[in-house]
Automatic annotation (TrEMBL):
<keyword id="KW-0210">Decarboxylase</keyword>
<feature type="domain" description="Orotidine 5'-phosphate decarboxylase">
    <location>
        <begin position="17"/>
        <end position="256"/>
    </location>
</feature>
<protein>
    <recommendedName>
        <fullName>Orotidine 5'-phosphate decarboxylase</fullName>
        <ecNumber>4.1.1.23</ecNumber>
    </recommendedName>
</protein>
<dbReference type="InterPro" id="IPR011995">
    <property type="entry name" value="OMPdecase_type-2"/>
</dbReference>
<feature type="active site" description="Proton donor">
    <location>
        <position position="95"/>
    </location>
</feature>
<dbReference type="GO" id="GO:0004590">
    <property type="term" value="F:orotidine-5'-phosphate decarboxylase activity"/>
</dbReference>
<dbReference type="InterPro" id="IPR011060">
    <property type="entry name" value="RibuloseP-bd_barrel"/>
</dbReference>
<comment type="similarity">
    <text>Belongs to the OMP decarboxylase family. Type 2 subfamily.</text>
</comment>
<keyword id="KW-0665">Pyrimidine biosynthesis</keyword>
<dbReference type="InterPro" id="IPR001754">
    <property type="entry name" value="OMPdeCOase_dom"/>
</dbReference>
<dbReference type="InterPro" id="IPR013785">
    <property type="entry name" value="Aldolase_TIM"/>
</dbReference>
<dbReference type="InterPro" id="IPR018089">
    <property type="entry name" value="OMPdecase_AS"/>
</dbReference>
<dbReference type="Pfam" id="PF00215">
    <property type="entry name" value="OMPdecase"/>
</dbReference>
<comment type="pathway">
    <text>Pyrimidine metabolism; UMP biosynthesis via de novo pathway; UMP from orotate: step 2/2.</text>
</comment>
<keyword id="KW-0456">Lyase</keyword>
Length: 273
């Protein structure tokens, strides 16, 4: 099963467009977890088990693990997801961007070491920095387009001679040239629903959008869904991290995470119509 096939099955079978981002911050873990020798693994595993019924996938952010020298815990966590929830896509959020053999190694890291179904990448260095990922034709390649941070406008709004902003040029490149095997997606932030709508119009129905920015970053769910959904009312992985992960720091942390995930999924589904 390819990444896009797996994602489409998850949207249907889970009745959810919600993706939970795994951004573990040990300083925010509940006391009952902080004493563990593998606290990052235990916390993320607890979140995964609590929220799995309400999501279309999980998105670990590699920097949160690497900064704590916890890459082995990330690998173990990815293995746990693949074995316990094989129907849910695993997206490694690493935003890699390099060329040649270096990109080949980053692809191997994502797809082999961490068993990811898809990985986020940066297109700034052009097609030859994306091509090594495309060689893994059953895997997903999710390319930064219009990011949720305010500073993204510094470059992403740069206009060509025709007046087209760079983020729409990236969207066109992906949809018209790079997506030869139907494995590409785009990262477009929920904090900019008007740009999200323009990207969806530019790429059509078949390019899935990874949409960060709801929850703690303040993106509006209804505006996000209306702007980014395709004609099947799917087409998005709407990511929420901190609002779910740290819904409670008490003994009820798993129950609280599950409750917020369910509420978020239901709000997304209500906006889908």
């Amino acid at each position: 099963m390819t990444f896009t096939e797996k994602l489409e099955a998850a949207w249907k079978n889970s009745n959810s467009l919600l993706m939970v981002g795994l951004d573990p911050d040990p300083n925010r873990f509940p006391p009952c977890i902080q004493q563990s020798k593998q606290a990052i693994f235990d916390f993320c595993k607890g979140i995964i088990d609590a929220t799995a019924p309400y999501v279309c996938g999980f998105k670990p952010q590699i920097a949160y693990f690497a900064s704590e020298s916890a890459e082995d815990q990330l690998a173990a966590l990815c293995d746990y997801i693949k074995k316990t929830y094989p129907h849910l896509p695993l997206v490694l959020d690493s935003k890699r961007g390099d060329i040649g053999t270096t990109a080949e190694h980053y692809a191997k890291e994502a797809y082999k070491r961490y068993q990811a179904d898809a990985v986020t990448v940066n297109p700034y260095m052009g097609f030859d920095s994306i091509e090594p990922y495309l060689a893994w034709q059953n895997k997903g390649v999710i390319i930064l387009c219009r990011t949720s941070n305010p500073g993204g406008s510094d470059l992403q709004f740069f206009e060509s001679s025709s007046g087209e902003p760079l983020y729409l040029h990236v969207a066109s490149l992906v949809a018209e040239k790079w997506n030869r095997h139907g494995q590409c997606g785009l990262v477009v932030g929920a904090t900019f629903p008007e740009e999200l709508k323009k990207v969806r119009e530019r790429v059509g129905d078949d390019v899935p959008l990874l949409v960060p920015g709801i929850g703690a970053q303040g993106g509006d769910i209804n505006s996000t869904v209306q702007a980014g959904k395709n004609t099947c009312s799917t087409g998005m992985m709407i990511n929420s991290s901190r609002a779910i992960l740290y819904a409670s720091s008490g003994d009820d942390w798993q129950e609280a995470a599950a409750a917020v995930a369910m509420q978020t999924r239901d709000a997304i589904n209500a906006a889908r119509g």
